Amino acid sequence: MEEEQNKEEIIHQLEEGKAKTRKGNLILKKRKGELHESSKNCLFISSNKRTEELKNFMHDLYNLHKPFTCYMPKVHPQLADIQTKLNEVVDLCVHNNCSFFFSVFSTKKKPSRFIMGRLYNNKLFDFYVFTLLSYIPMKMFPQAKDILFDTKPIVLIQGSYFDETDVRKNIRNVLFDFFKHRNVDSVSTSSIQRLIVISALTEGTNSNQVLSFRQYLLKKEHLWHPQTSSEPLPPLEEIGPRFNFVIDNSQIANYHLFEEATKNVDQLLKKKSKKKKIKNVQVDEMGNSIKRVYVQKQSFGKLHTKHSKLHNRAKKAGRRTQPSEGKNANATSQAF
Questions:
Q1: Is the pLDDT of residue 336 over 60?
Q2: Helix (H) or strand (E) holding 134
Q3: Is residue 268, in this structure, part of any structural domain at all?
Q4: Rounded distance, CA 308 to CA 12, Å?
Q5: Is 47 domain-assigned?
Q6: Smallest Cα–Cα separation from 130: which of 156, 160, 104, 109?
Q7: Where is this region: Disordered (predicted)?
Q8: Between residues 26 and 10, the one the model is more confident about
């Protein structure tokens, strides 16, 4: 009983953001939100039931996401029906400093499924459950060995399907966020080697729209091909993996939370740091700033200056003699 109470106290302190030790304070600092988010780590974890195909599928996506990964390929019996155990998955993500999670699971009624979700402020932000329809592993493509997977790809998501509803817009957002790899300010053409294309195969309002994933090898001929050249572009070589999937279930974030998570921090900081216009300041030809300062007139009678004790005594004596002099003046006027 005492151990359970101690655990509850520790969890309560972590939720409130309090820690008693130096190490606990460091852990809480790492868990705090960042103004400029770094590249997102992803937790790859298996549930209690999976097929060999799903195991290879998760391993291929793990290779695409390296090195920002935490890999747990063993079967976890406590994650039976993972959609109801998302709180445990979130705790594992927080413990391993991951803001993404990916898991595969399979049942008799609904086989070959995978789930993809995100965290915000160490809490569940949204998640999406997909059904895997077909899959060809990466090892079946001979050109896959020529690629360096620790490189940032170009991600192309195409199809009017992704513009129809809020759920589909969020699907596009999470797919791009998952496959974009690292966050960088600029990219050189020599480092671009991969093209990821995610497309809706057929247009329509069908809720079970089939989505396809393809990855191609980019060469110098594709990037440096002149626009005026009459020669056709060389065909793209597929490097895998190749798979088709369908959305099965989802839980999107509410509007206000999504706006808070996607706000541009740089613009907000610029607005706050805008300098106010300083009035009555001029700059001469030499670069010196000349300022005009307006000061009220000073009454020198009230101006405070330091005086000695003798001066104060003489001042007091003068005050005493003033009324007597007035009386003498009145007496002389009456005499006349």
A1: no
A2: strand 123-136
A3: no
A4: 68
A5: yes
A6: 104
A7: 304-336
A8: 26
Do the beta carbons of residue 136 and residue 144 sit within 8 Å?
Answer: no
Number of domains in the chain: 1
**Residues of the chain by 3-state class (helix, strand, coil), percent to 5:** 40, 20, 40
Tell me the torsion sign for CA atoms 176, 63, 215, 208. negative
Identify whether the C-beta of residue 196 lies closer than 8 Å to the C-beta of residue 217: no
Residue 154: Cβ-neighbour burial (10 angstroms; 0-12, 13-18, 19+): middle
Q: What's 151's domain CATH number?
A: 3.40.50.10480
> CA 312 → CA 300, 303, 325, distances in Å?
18, 15, 20
Residue written as token pair 């039931």: 49
Q: Could you read off the pLDDT of 244-298 as tens digits, one per residue? A: 999 999 999 888 888 888 777 666 666 666 666 777 888 888 878 888 877 777 7
In a domain, 278, yes or no: no
Say which residue the tokens 């304070």 belong to.
25
Q: How far apart (Å, rounded) are the C-alpha atoms in residues 31 and 34? A: 9
How far is CA 134 from each of CA 131, 236, 244, 261, 333, rounded to the nearest angstrom? 9, 21, 5, 34, 126
Calpha distance 57→64 (Å, rounded)? 11
Encoding tokens for residue 113? 């499924």
Q: Please choose, from the candidates 280, 246, 257, the residue with its C-alpha nearest in 3D space to the C-alpha of residue 124.
A: 257
- Residue 111, preceding bond cis, omega within 30 degrees? no
Range of the domain at 103: 38-225+232-254
- 3-state class (DSSP) for residue 125: strand
Cα dihedral sign for 257, 259, 262, 265? negative
